[in-house]
Design brief:
heterodimer, A: mainly beta, nine-stranded antiparallel beta sheet, about 0% helix, B: alpha+beta, elongated
Chain lengths: ~180, ~1050
């Protein structure tokens, strides 16, 4: 892949369908890149939609999956309001962080709330899908609010043509499927 | 007349009785007025010679006479009554008694004159057709011998003074009676009959014409002591009723001897020398006690020597009247062994007795001679089949501990070539020297002669009393045959397969090549021995898995062996100890967990070699080579423990082992003992630098007694003073500390709730750290459980102290020391388990009622400490676990925890228990640790019981340090009353967040257990979320 000089990024598919929106929305955003490297921004909007309208957002944790014949995962950078926990030995989330100020409430930030930036390198050609998932049965994963946790499930599909100088990005939406409430 | 007789008899009996009872009148008086006094030694005799020669002579005292007044058929052979009889004769007669002589009672005399000689009188009768068909001579006797008389030996002569033509003949028949009125014939032995039909009714000159003797005839009649007996010699026609032409007969020369119960001769015998070597000359002796009633005459003793190759009627020669002895040469070929020679005694009275003379025959005592195999003596059971027998053995010395300061003997092992090959029989045996013989050394071949004994003794084995049985030879002689012999050393491995297997190695040279560890040292300074095992043994009940208890008990029993000091010296006579190297001292301890013969450089161990012995309740090894110890279990410094415990506050649980300021009661006996005890206790307590102390075994009553009346804080205040002294940088015994950071919780005002025991639980706290909230409370249920003490505290400093209250509880449950009965005792959980369980149940209920009115109410945090006298797996402790409490020792330290060593088994009787649930005490405790400053140490290093130590030991064993300050290890807890305050600075902030961030992903055991808020064992983002709620709560 290091021989590729120009890249073409194109939209293949928007995977996530529109599901009833009960809470926050997570998105994977990838700006155009002109080299063999690209970033995916994990952003959160509607953070304090019901039932989180009187809640605090604390932390997040999720795993990342992709076709490792097409891209290589290089790591992550936490969002500006977060402390990275991804490197903690023993943590069971590939990407995790908590709010540096402990409690993030309404007015503490402007949406979208960037949780983390995922760094990739293209190593092959063809379509691929990048997926993030936070299973709330795993106590290190999900969107961690003070009152409970929401699962994470989002993906985006990409195509890497040869030769090409343009990347196309698709967006996918994550809808919380269920929530682990703290009673 | 009858009345007069009765009065006479009563008077005489009364006199005799009075004399016997009071003993105030001489024996002469009794003879003058009493009956004929029977004797069993001197016969009573009567020859009637004092009667004189008159016709109306008075018969002797206590004799009477009578006759019938007619001669009808009813009058013949008729005996009258003693009371109605007279005391005088009616006629006198002698030689040539006339054919027409008058009938009547005659005073006869022997000789040639018509009245007879004055010095040879007798009493007789002549019958006629008109009167005297019967005549009677009576005698009245009394038994005052002090014992029953079983018969009378009677002699007398019947004399014939005139012939009679009456064909029926005449006779004298003796009768006897107990009342003088009702008569029984004495039988044919006492019938003297003369044939009738004499040629004429003529007398004799000289008279009498015939004399017939009744000689030494026995009248079998029982005369109880104090009773009377009457005799009557009845004269009459022998048969038919015609009494004319009568023969004249008289009675003379009476002799009466009382007979007591006859006894046979008895005797005993001995042999000297004994044992006797076959072929040697032995003297057999007997001492005889003659038979009695009558006394033996003509005594003879014979012994049956057929078992020893001699005569079956071997006579012992008379040396004196009662001693007999003769010598006999035991044939050279006589088999060795114990012989019992039967002997018999005989006398002229045809009585006999018997006894045995025991004699041990041995072989010549020469090296190489025949022997009994040691394995034969040991047998394949617990006791020897040859107990009591004298044996000769020859073996190799495998351990020599001669002298009264040692074991008073040595061990012999059968030479290798003559082992019997039976694994069930031991080839070794202990030789006990009541008197020390020649010095023997390992490798000597020694011949021993002695008696097989079973030396039994008792002692404690793993905390239970047990009896030991050691087969030994009580040595009478020994002989060193050679030196430098080699012998087999048998290798044993712990655990042994079966406890019974030890018996097969008793007295043998053995070794353990495996690494052994000290598992108990309680008796080191008192008895000189310690217990070893492959690893530190734990009490079976430390686990709640009750099905494992029997198995673990068996395994523990099979895993331990005592290492003895080759000595029987104890207590004050035991100093210095054989081990550790250099002897036990305060600075040279030997701790449980230390390794035997371990070389730390090579990380190998040398074999432990000695002789296997069984005494004082426990199988033991008497070492035959120096034993070394490696201090693998070093005395733990307190600083790392305190660091690991951490926490904002530090709680301490400590048993202060009968801390009494009243000397001579349950605690210290002398001022020196007290000073030493206090110094050690304070050194330990102050080293832990607690904020709150829960103490057990502090003096309760002012007089130091149980149920002693007035409660006191004196001992508790002494502890507070000691802590303040240390805090002031002064001696624990100082009298004026410069600072006073510690105070006590005063329970004296609670009165009877302090219970009746001599000891109680107590709380000391640091005033700068904690503030009591409300008053203390005690739960006392009137039994031998000590009252439970509770006190609520809050932080003295920091933000929001009022929401940080916690209740500190000290328990001290009933000990396992003595049985409670009533189904409360348990074979594994010990005496009074039921009583402790009952206390646990009631304490849980009591605490549920918030006895200290903790303002936290339903959210209150409870931290219990103390000496529960129950191991973790036992019912009382499990009760807490199933009723809302977490055992912090089990949860944090786990199965290796111990605070006490009883019976060489470790375990924890001391517990830290916290209520569980969100925000409860369990989530506030950061860490807990046991400081093993006591349980691993030899008990002799404790300050108390100094009287059992020698003066040198008292000096050597004491040091003003925290080691062996008590018998229980203390518990140290780090906790924080503020939820979420992970760095223990009194606030919940981002610093705590950073600590939590660094811990996410780790196990709770790897980090601060308080962070594991959801209790899943791992620090996760979910714990972070919980923590954030505490953060928010604190910030608000």
């Amino acid at each position: 892949m290091t021989t590729m000089k120009k890249y073409f990024l194109f939209l293949l598919l928007a995977l996530a369908g529109i599901l009833p929106s009960r809470a926050e929305t997570i998105s994977l955003d990838a700006p155009s890149q002109t080299s063999g490297f690209f970033d995916v921004f994990v952003n959160l909007t509607d953070v304090f939609s019901a039932p989180h309208d009187a809640d605090f957002f604390l932390a997040y944790g999720f795993d990342v999956s992709f076709d490792n014949s097409i891209v290589s995962y290089l790591g992550e950078t936490p969002g500006a309001l977060f402390t990275d926990l991804s490197a903690n030995p023993g943590i069971t989330a590939e990407v995790a962080g908590d709010a540096t100020n402990i409690l993030l409430g309404p007015g503490d930030f402007t949406e979208p709330l960037n949780l983390a930036v995922l760094h990739f390198e293209t190593i092959g050609v063809g379509p691929t899908t990048i997926t993030i998932s936070g299973d709330i049965s795993n106590l290190d994963q999900g969107l961690i609010y003070l009152t409970g946790s929401d699962p994470i499930s989002a993906s985006a599909s990409f195509g890497v043509p040869e030769p090409s100088a343009l990347w196309l990005l698709s967006l996918s939406l994550l809808i919380p499927l269920r929530r682990r409430w703290i009673g | 007349m009858r009345s007069a007789k009765s009065f006479f008899e009563l008077t005489q009996r009364g006199l005799a009785f009075g004399l016997r009872v009071a003993g105030l009148v001489s024996a002469g008086c009794i003879l003058a007025f009493g009956q004929i006094q029977l004797s069993t030694s001197v016969p009573y005799t009567q020859d009637f010679n004092a009667m004189g020669t008159t016709a109306t002579a008075t018969v002797p005292v206590n004799f009477k006479v009578d006759r019938t007044a007619t001669s009808t058929a009813a009058d013949v052979r008729k005996v009258g009554t003693f009371s109605a009889a007279g005391t005088a004769t009616t006629q006198v007669g002698g030689a040539n008694l006339s054919s027409s002589a008058a009938n009547g009672i005659y005073n006869f005399g022997d000789g040639t004159t018509s009245t007879g000689d004055a010095n040879s009188r007798s009493v007789g009768f002549v019958a006629s057709g008109t009167a005297t068909a019967s005549g009677d001579l009576y005698a009245w006797m009394h038994n005052a011998t002090g014992a029953n008389i079983t018969g009378l030996q009677i002699s007398y002569n019947v004399k014939k003074f005139r012939n009679g033509t009456n064909a029926s003949g005449f006779r004298i028949q003796l009768f006897y009676s107990t009342d003088g009125a009702n008569w029984t014939s004495a039988g044919s032995d006492f019938l003297t009959a003369f044939a009738g039909g004499d040629a004429a009714n003529t007398g004799f000159n000289p008279a009498p014409g015939a004399t017939v003797s009744v000689s030494n005839k026995t009248l079998n009649v029982n005369i109880a002591d104090g009773s009377d007996l009457y005799l009557a010699w009845n004269y009459s026609v022998t048969i038919n009723n015609t009494v004319t032409n009568a023969q004249a007969l008289s009675v003379d020369d009476i002799s009466i001897l009382g007979l007591a119960t006859a006894t046979n001769p008895t005797g005993s015998g001995s042999a000297s020398p004994n044992p006797i070597t076959a072929g040697g000359l032995v003297t057999l002796s007997a001492t005889v006690t003659p038979g009695s009633n009558p006394s033996s005459t003509g005594l003879a003793v014979r012994c049956d020597l057929s078992s020893l190759g001699g005569s079956s009627t071997f006579s012992l020669a008379s040396q004196t009247a009662t001693s007999f002895s003769s010598q006999y040469t035991v044939p050279a070929g006589t088999a060795p062994g114990n012989y019992s020679v039967p002997c018999s005694i005989s006398d002229d009275q045809a009585r006999s007795g018997s006894f045995n003379i025991t004699l041990a025959v041995t072989l010549p005592f020469n090296c190489g001679g025949p022997t009994t195999g040691i394995h034969t003596i040991q047998g394949n059971g617990a006791t020897s089949p040859l107990l009591g027998q004298t044996v000769d053995i020859e073996g190799i010395v495998v351990g020599s501990f001669q002298g009264t300061s040692k074991l008073r003997g040595f061990y012999l092992q059968e030479p290798d070539a003559s082992w019997d090959g039976d694994p069930a029989t031991s080839e070794g045996i202990f030789i006990f020297e009541s008197t020390q013989g020649p010095t023997v050394n390992i490798g000597d071949r020694v011949r021993v002669r002695g008696t097989v004994n079973d030396f039994t003794s008792t002692g404690s084995f793993l905390g239970n009393t047990q009896t030991s049985s050691l087969t030994e030879i009580g040595m009478t002689s020994d002989l060193v045959c050679s030196t430098g012999n080699i012998f087999t050393v048998t290798t044993l491995t712990l655990p042994i397969a079966d406890l019974a297997d030890w018996e097969r190695y008793e007295g043998m040279a053995v070794q353990f090549t495996q690494q052994l560890k000290v598992t108990g040292n309680f008796s080191l300074g008192t008895q000189g021995w310690i217990d070893l095992a492959p690893s530190l043994l734990y009490t079976p009940t430390i686990t709640p898995n009750q099905s494992s208890w029997p198995t673990q008990t068996s395994l523990n029993q099979r895993s331990v062996i005592a290492l003895d000091d080759d000595s029987t010296l104890t207590n004050a006579n035991l100093y210095p100890t054989l081990f550790p190297q250099g002897g036990l001292s305060a600075s040279n301890t030997l701790r449980a967990g230390d390794l035997v013969n371990y070389n730390a450089t090579s990380q190998t161990n040398a074999p432990l070699i000695g002789v296997l012995d069984d005494r004082f309740g426990e199988i033991r090894l008497e070492p035959t080579a120096p034993v070394t110890f490696f201090n693998a279990n070093v005395r733990p410094a307190i600083a790392p423990i305190l660091t690991s415990v951490g926490g904002r506050f530090r709680g301490v649980s400590a048993n202060v082992l009968n801390f009494f300021t009243t000397l001579g009661s349950r605690g210290a006996q002398t001022q020196t003992e007290f000073d030493h005890q206090k110094t050690k206790v304070i050194e330990a307590l102050s080293a832990m630098n607690g904020d709150v102390y829960g103490l057990s075994e502090v003096q309760n009553f002012a007089n130091g007694n149980t149920n002693g009346g007035t409660y006191t804080n004196a001992a508790l205040q002494s502890l507070v003073d000691g802590l303040n002294c240390k805090a002031s940088g002064m001696s624990p015994l100082c009298t004026a500390p410069s600072v006073t950071p510690y105070a006590l919780i005063d329970t004296v005002p609670l009165g009877g709730s302090n219970g009746t025991d001599a000891i109680r639980s107590a709380i000391i706290y640091r005033t700068a750290a904690l503030v009591p909230v409300g008053s203390p409370a005690e739960y006392y249920q009137g039994d031998t459980n000590r009252p439970t003490l509770a006190q609520t505290f809050k932080p003295a400093l920091g933000a929001k102290p009022d929401i940080q209250t916690f209740t500190f509880v000290v328990n001290h449950f009933r000990s396992k020391g003595s049985a409670c009965g009533g189904g409360l005792d348990d074979p594994f959980q010990g005496s009074c388990n039921g009583l402790r369980l009952n206390m646990a149940q009631n304490v849980v209920t009591w605490l549920a009622g918030n006895p200290t009115s903790d303002p936290a109410g339903a959210n209150r945090r409870i931290l219990m400490v103390g000496d529960y006298n129950a191991y973790y797996g036992e019912d009382p402790i499990q009760w807490f676990g199933t009723h809302g409490y977490t055992n912090l020792i089990n949860a944090i330290i786990g199965p290796t925890a111990y605070s006490y060593n009883f019976g060489s088994q470790a375990g924890y009787l001391d517990h830290a228990i916290a209520n569980n649930g969100t925000g409860k005490m369990n989530s506030l405790v950061k860490n807990v640790a046991e400081w093993h400053n006591n349980a691993d140490e030899p008990s002799s290093l404790q300050a108390l019981s100094s009287s059992s130590k020698s003066a040198a030991a008292q000096v050597a064993y004491y040091s003003p340090d925290p080691w062996a300050a008590s018998d229980h290890d203390p518990i140290v807890l780090g906790f924080n009353t503020l939820l979420g305050d992970l760095n223990d600075d009194g606030v919940v902030d981002t610093q705590d967040q950073r600590l939590l961030n660094s811990a996410i992903g780790k196990s709770a055991a790897q980090t601060d257990r308080r962070m594991d808020y959801d209790g899943d064992g791992t620090i996760t983002l979910n714990d972070y979320r919980v923590w954030a709620t505490y953060y928010l709560a604190f910030q608000r």
